[in-house]
Each structure stands twice: as C-alpha cells, then as structure tokens.
Amino acid sequence: MMPALSNMVSTTASLTQLKNANLDGKVHLTPTIDFIKVIVPKKAIVKWDCGDNELHAIQFHPSGSLIATGGSDRKIHIWELNAHYNQVQQVYVLTGNNSTVTAIDFDNENANLILGCSEDFACRVWGLADQRLRHTLTGHGAKVFCAKFVTATLIASGSQDRTLKLWDLQNRQCVRTLFAGSKCHDLVAHDASGSLISGHFDKKIRFWDARNDSTKCELQLQAAVTSLSINREKQLLLACSRDDTLKLIELRENRVIQTFSHDDFKVASDTIKAVLSPDCTYACAGSNDGSVFVWNT
Questions:
Q1: Torsion angle, alpha carbons of 228, 234, 237, 238, to 10
Q2: Domain limits at 297?
C-alpha cells in the first residue's frame, strides 16, 4: 500500500533540497500537490529491512520522496525513495525519545519539521534540515498515542491519560487541555483554529469546539475507535474501529454514510490505522494477517 500512496501525488523533493536548506533550519519546500489518477497496486514494488525492532509508525513526507518510520528502538528513521520508488536508503536517524515511538507527523505547511510522540509521555519536534531536536513537549500523564500538526506552530496530541493537549511551539507551552474521559487513540485537525476530532476507547468520536474546552458533538460507534483519517477539504472522515469495520462520515452533518467490512478483515489492536486515498475514491486498512484491504468509496 505504501508505494501506491506515494504515487498518488505528482510532486517530489530531493534530499539535496533538504541539505541546501538555510542555516536557520528551515527547508523551503512548500509542496504544491496536484492529484493524479489513483491506482490500486497489484504488488509491492519495494521492500526494505527496518531492523529487528517492532515498527509502530510510518509516514510519508509531503513531497513523497521521504518516509519516516518509528518503533520500539525509540528512534525515528528517515528513508529516501528514488524517483521510480523502487529503491530506498536510510538518510537520517532522529534520537531523543526514551521509549517506543507511537506516531509520526510532518509539518504540511512548509515541510520543515517532523513530529513524533512516544510511550514516554512526551512529544518531540525535530528540524529536517539539521536533524536537531527543537522541542520536547511534556505534560501528559501516560503514553501519547497520537500527535498532529494543526499548523506549523500548533500541535495537538492525544494520550492514554484521557486528555488532548494543544501546544504552541512559539511559546513552547501547552495552551489548552481537553478532558475527554476516555483514552484517545487518534485525532485530526478540522481547521487551523484548533478545532479537533478525536477517536476514543469508549467507542466515541468527539468533535471539539475551538472556542472553548467542550465537545460540540459526539458520535457513538459500535466499538473502540482505532484511527481517523480526514480528506484535504475537511468534508469526509474515515474511522476504523474494533468491530472490524471502517465508517465514512460526512462532516457537514456528522453522520455515517458508508460502512466497509469483509469477512477476512480483522482489526488486531487499538491503534490500527486506516486511510482515505487523496481523491477519496478508496479506503485502505491493514488486517491482522498482514494483508491490506482496499474498498471503493
């Protein structure tokens, strides 16, 4: 599935551009993404060994030319793909975590920063140009399962401690704590103001109002929510849950419009990820037997 996702965008950026970044650590890549026809792959076009440690997180750079992976070795590895997506080489290793890496995200505005969260209760931000650790965000009281860039200077995180936090990178502090009452397995930003959508162990998807610390809506599913994926236009949300289903949610009315399932599709853990294709024509998720399921939306 991963090579197919990289082929869904038509922009690339080379490692040379990263190395030629300004000394201030900023990588001026701002990718302009033009969607092309999404093609479901028939076979894997590249495989590589990520070591003997468990792999818990994987994320494409917005350019499509880099992949970040993280896991039980407490490191984030940056890999570069060649132009044909059939060769991979490791180019950077980011250190600083004290436990397993649980999720990774890139700054989509400028493509300058990479965010990782960990079971050590913290989130960290590195610069891509110099691989320097810029921020360590502490304040959660348990494992951090998810963290996303809302903007280039605002980060949202969700934790086993049943809270979500918003972090201001300019002031290096937590600016809001949202009390969900249930473990947060995943979250997405609904807009740049800090409105969030979160998925939880108690089977609920919560829609948070950016103007205060309360939910404006809750959507009850049939099992624990393991992941959320939102489209670029912020109109559709894909939720994966422990009842072995994916649900497509229309965000104008916050209602389920499609449910995807298969007899052989099994959600094996509370943090299994599902994603929408960039053009929203497919929903994809991995099953406990190692296979990848793709549904038409």
A1: -70
A2: 150-297
